[in-house]
Automatic annotation (TrEMBL):
It comes from Folsomia candida. Pfam families: TRAM_LAG1_CLN8. The chain crosses the membrane at residues 6-29, 92-113, 147-169, 175-196, 208-230, 250-269. It is found in: Membrane. This is Protein FAM57A. Keywords: Membrane, Transmembrane, Transmembrane helix. GO terms for cellular component: endoplasmic reticulum; membrane. InterPro entries: TLC-dom, TLCD. GO terms for biological process: lipid homeostasis. It is a multi-pass membrane protein. SMART domains: TLC. Its main location: membrane. Residues 47-279 form the TLC domain.
């Protein structure tokens, strides 16, 4: 168990670490020569730079969580229910502030103008209740229209998961928590897809390779591993796979469904995006084939005439 002082220290460090990483990346683009050159060369707006910064911090968090998850799963594999590992609670307290930070960072990005975020000083003079109400209205619109599933996941599911990890589960199920951490292993590929898009590299081989890895790692780490964990638990408890769900506590069944359902939804969005890309490229290929066929036909006619 971690002492109260240790818990407070970890939570405070997490509350400082993730926003500080974001602010450091923002300062890199705004105040360093290299950052300014990258911004100018790639024609990045302030919004693009902020979005890239959010995705890089998300990648860093995903790597940390994945490493912790791999450590826990490797040590608790033999007894998925009762084997414990200190890394579970350590990262839970350190990583918990990330979800609030990420939701606020995504909202911040949504408020930046597409070109240059000027007139920001005007907001400093609107400290009245009307300004706060307008900001709250903007946030509600952001949640509803932009990234509702992600924000709800961050502001609702993440706190519930945190309470389960730290309080309600007792000393059982560290392996399951390790699997939850390991689900983040696909996040870097999702983040780099956005980053490469901002850098105008959609037609590059790197973008296509990253997309392929994203489509492979996402269902593997976020869907397949969850069902494998249930199967592993069923084997160790000498239960059938379907019997495990029937005998599962309603609260744990709800947690399972609440954690797995968004993954199917996000993967559906990925596949839909891939289908759109393939459909958009099909007419281009046919347009390229038509001139080639025309040239070949003309050559044939000329040969016949000769």
């Amino acid at each position: 168990m971690i002492s109260q002082a240790g818990v407070a220290t970890l939570f405070l460090l997490g509350s400082i670490f993730f926003p500080l990483c974001f602010l450091s990346l923002q300062a890199f683009y705004r105040k360093t020569k290299i950052g300014s050159e990258i911004k100018k060369k790639q024609q990045l707006s302030d919004k693009d730079c902020a979005d890239i910064s959010v995705k890089l911090v998300s990648t860093l968090q995903a790597i940390l969580a994945s490493v912790c998850g791999a450590i826990v799963c490797s040590k608790c594999y033999d007894d998925v229910l009762y084997c414990t590992h200190p890394v579970v609670l350590t990262y839970a307290w350190f990583g918990a502030p990330y979800f609030l930070y990420d939701a606020m960072a995504m909202f911040y990005v949504s408020t930046i103008a597409d070109k240059h975020y000027k007139n920001i000083n005007k907001l400093k003079h609107k400290r009245n209740s009307k300004g706060l109400f307008a900001m709250g209205k903007k946030f509600c619109t952001f949640v509803y229209k932009s990234s509702s599933v992600i924000v709800i996941h961050h502001l609702l599911m993440a706190p519930c998961g945190f309470l389960i990890i730290t309080y309600f589960r007792g000393v059982r199920g560290d392996f399951f928590i390790g699997v939850m951490y390991l689900m983040e292993a696909s996040t870097p590929f999702v983040s780099f897809r956005v980053i490469l898009s901002k850098l105008q590299m959609k037609s590059s081989l790197l973008y296509k390779l990253n997309g392929a890895l994203m489509l492979i790692t996402f269902p593997f780490f976020r869907i397949a591993t969850v069902f494998y964990t249930v199967s592993l638990y069923a084997d160790q408890q000498q239960l059938g796979f379907t019997e495990t769900f029937c005998t599962m506590h309603p609260g744990w069944l709800f947690v399972f469904l609440a954690s797995i359902a968004p993954q199917f939804y996000w993967y559906y969005l990925m596949l839909s995006g891939l289908a759109k890309i393939l459909r958009s490229e099909a007419p281009k290929n046919s347009e390229l084939e038509e001139p080639a066929q025309t040239v070949a036909t003309n050559k044939t006619h000329n040969n016949l005439r000769e």
